[in-house]
Amino acid sequence: MRAAPGQRRRGGAGPHAGRHLFRPLLDHHGEGLTMAEVQTKPMPVPDNISRPYWEGANQGEFRFQRCSACGKAQFYSRYACVHCHSTKHEWQVAVGLGRVASFSVIHRAPLSSFAADTPYVLALVDLDEGFRFMCNVLNCDPATVKIGMRVRVCYETRSGTEQKVPQVEPAKS
Ligand SMILES: [Zn+2]
């Protein structure tokens, strides 16, 4: 029996509605998640707004948007400026240096595909160009990561894909 549209809406806001918050992380292909897919790390699906960023990553460039109206940087890429709502922006290439603003050491992986990486560092990094970037801090002992530490962008290659994923590692001073 089919539910009337009104009933279906109420059902959708029921006690399990909150689980949909996690769907983009767990299931980027849409419906029909299988155990085989859980074994693979989530990968980006570039769209018209994010494609310059992901193409840049494959060329070793960390690209970001700078608003043509107010001059402020924004990250991640969006259709309109988060500061002034202008839709005019240009893509620039970051030098790739920044500082750790905050971080957590992850001991219990959210997906089985990350289990082999534990413990690993999830960080918020302030790039010198003036925007914040969430990423992993690679190529170091997690116990050595500190707030304020200088880091630089590096590019992770994940198995089964040609797409490189921007991350950071300690900057050698
Ligand atoms: Zn703006």
TrEMBL record:
Record domain ChsH2 rubredoxin-like zinc ribbon: where: 54-90
Boundaries of every ChsH2 C-terminal OB-fold domain copy: 91-155
Pfam families, per database record: OB_ChsH2_C, zf-ChsH2
Protein's name in the database: Zn-ribbon domain-containing OB-fold protein
Organism: Caenimonas sedimenti
